[in-house]
Design a protein that fits this description.
Helices cover 65% and strands 10% of the residues. It is an alpha/beta fold and 571 residues long. Bound molecules: adenosine-5'-triphosphate.
Length: 571
């Protein structure tokens, strides 16, 4: 919660003013039953119309002031809640953007999504409610008790006997509620994860007729959320009926004792009437306090989830490691890495590339090809060994400088709901010429020109209105458009036909001759012209050389070549 107070700090003057206005309104509300009792017991018996009208006018004024001040204060409370949540959401989004891939893996994406949406919403509700009721409810409660004590001390004893029981009840229920709401939020994370997977894989689910299976999977997590919600809800829902019970018992006793005291001439009917009104005010104040506790339970569970992300220390710091003069552009020396820090995902990887050279990486699924790329881009830190660009260890290159060296197409990269030009430009303001050159090299220009609105053609989210091959060409164009120092194509020509694939490679050689290129591929034909080919198996380097060298030295490479190219193994 300390984090939240930090965000509330700039609004303290406005909140104080709002709470002061609320205070005035609440006092007006408290005065009304007292004036009513005074009118019934003291003014009406005098039978002076002018006096009755005067006190009636005072009551009207008090009511109007109570309504107006409450409206103004509530609006101010909403303003503060909106602006505080906006700032929290902004900082949370920024922090999430800077989390390292490892930290994102640890939090999981659905959990980050719900922290950014549901949790910030819960905070918004809590901050708003605390301001609307935080002053009003305690004043109505304490003020009500004080006024009733002065009005009818004997009857107030009945009330005072009941209130501690209610206080204890609220405390006990809220203490149980906070962990239950944290638990519920985790259930929601898991539901978001399932929905996310389902929507991302909607095509394959339909194609394999797995809709029913997915429905069952969703029902399962949905039921779990309902179960946790029920558990939290039931615990919290116990409060209101039990409180009502206590208070109704108290009210009945007040009426019995009050009636007896009026009959005995010890008090007046106006006082009993006012006492009953105060009793209702006190009841409502207690109910409001309970609602505040429920909201606080949710809000504080959400606040700690948000705090967890905001307080995550920066990962992948830039280190002051001296570089060494090198004629290699990219260099891997004895690099080892493991995601879980148990079994090595990559083990003892070595290669050197000169500027403008091409490296092809091939190997079975899950052998560590994409991981190697991730290490080069420093999305994760290697466990041991050296990764250098121009002789400079990647850990010593500031992230922005490092990442602008790359043009990259990852597996399953996304296109956005925008024009083709904007998707290639990607917010870099590159100019039409660079965009068209990149599109031409990526073999995308022909199909773009065939569209009625060319580069202004709008794509749907994730590029669902273009074919798989067209999508890959646009993504390659995006990677090329920034004229990168290093181009990485991670299995990104798999949907291209052989002819287009070969045209792409030829265009890369002629127009991006100074760009060092790394191509991860499943097809030998995509990499056989590369200057170096790295063959991986289970994270280990089992072959390194040119196509011809590997045919001689690496059995696995020869087997893949024969299976894909038959007898024609010439480069
Ligand atoms: N974020 C991650 N957390 C934990 N393990 C991971 C993560 N990403 C990949 N792995 C594991 O590391 C291994 C190597 O994965 P990687 O994606 O590098 O393989 P790949 O050779 O690129 O596979 P593919 O050809 O299928 O793309 C796999 O066993 C994979 O399950």
């Amino acid at each position: 919660m300390r984090t939240i107070f930090r965000y509330l700090k700039p609004y303290v003057p406005r909140m104080s003013l709002g709470l002061f206005i609320k205070f005035i309104g609440t006092i007006m509300d408290l005065l009304l039953p007292w004036i009513l009792s005074y009118m019934i017991d003291d003014v009406v018996p005098q039978e002076r119309i002018s006096l009755i009208l005067l006190w009636g006018g005072v009551m009207l004024l008090c009511s109007a002031a109570a309504v107006i001040t409450n409206i103004v204060a509530n609006r101010m409370a909403s303003w503060v809640a909106q602006h505080t949540t906006e700032a929290i959401r902004h900082d949370l989004f920024t922090r999430i953007s800077y989390l390292s891939c490892k930290q994102i893996d640890d939090f999981t994406i659905p959990s980050l999504e719900s922290r950014l949406t549901t949790d910030t919403y819960n905070l918004h509700q809590m901050i708003g409610m605390m301001q609307r009721l935080g002053v009003r409810a305690p004043i109505l409660l304490l003020g009500g008790i004080l006024v009733t004590l002065t009005l009818e001390p004997v009857l107030s004893l009945v009330l005072l006997a009941v209130l501690p029981l209610i206080g204890l009840l609220v405390f006990a229920v809220s203490r149980k509620g906070i962990p239950l709401y944290g638990n519920l939020q985790q259930g929601i994370d898991s539901m978001v994860r399932t929905v996310r997977e389902n929507i991302a894989g909607i095509r394959v689910i339909k194609a394999l007729s797995k809709t029913e299976y997915e429905q069952n999977r969703f029902s399962h997590v949905n039921e779990e959320v309902v179960r946790r919600e029920k558990k939290a809800g039931i615990t919290m829902a116990l409060t209101n009926p039990l409180m009502n019970l206590f208070l109704n018992i108290g009210l009945t006793m007040v009426i019995l004792v009050g009636a007896w005291r009026v009959n005995a001439g010890l008090t007046q009917p106006g006082k009993i009437l006012a006492f009953l009104t105060y009793f209702t005010i006190i009841l409502n104040a207690m109910l409001s306090i309970t609602r505040m506790f429920v909201m606080y339970s949710k809000g504080s569970a959400s606040a700690s989830r948000i705090h967890e992300v905001l307080s995550t220390p920066a990962d992948l710091a830039v280190l002051e490691v001296p570089g060494a003069a090198s004629d290699s552009h990219i260099e891997f020396q004895h690099v080892c890495f493991s995601y879980q820090k148990k079994e090595d995902t990559l083990y003892d990887i070595n290669f050197r590339l000169k500027r403008g050279e091409t490296l092809g990486i091939i190997g079975a699924t899950g052998c560590g090809k994409s991981t190697l790329i991730a290490l080069l881009m420093r999305l994760y830190d290697r466990d041991s060994g050296e990764i250098r660009i121009d002789g400079q260890p990647v850990e010593s290159i500031p992230p922005h400088e490092l990442h602008t060296k790359f043009g990259v197409v990852f597996q399953n990269d996304v296109l956005f709901a925008d024009t083709i030009a904007a998707n290639i430009d990607f917010g870099r303001e590159l100019g039409q010429e660079a965009i068209e050159k990149a599109a031409a090299c990526a073999q995308a220009k022909e199909f773009i020109d065939a569209l009625p609105d060319g580069f202004s053609h709008r794509l749907t989210a994730k590029g669902t209105n273009v074919s798989g091959g067209q999508k890959q060409r646009l993504l390659i164009a995006r990677a090329l458009a920034g004229n990168p120092e290093i181009l990485i194509l991670d299995d990104s020509s798999s949907a291209l036909d052989y002819k287009t694939d070969s045209l792409l490679r030829r265009a890369l050689r002629s127009q991006y001759a100074k760009t060092t290129t790394i191509i991860v591929a499943q097809r030998i034909s995509s990499i056989l012209h590369a200057d170096h080919i790295l063959v991986l198996e289970d994270g280990k380097e089992i072959g390194y050389g040119t196509h011809e060298e590997l045919l001689e030295t690496c059995n696995i490479y020869r087997e893949i070549s024969i299976s894909q190219m038959g007898g024609d193994l010439s480069a």
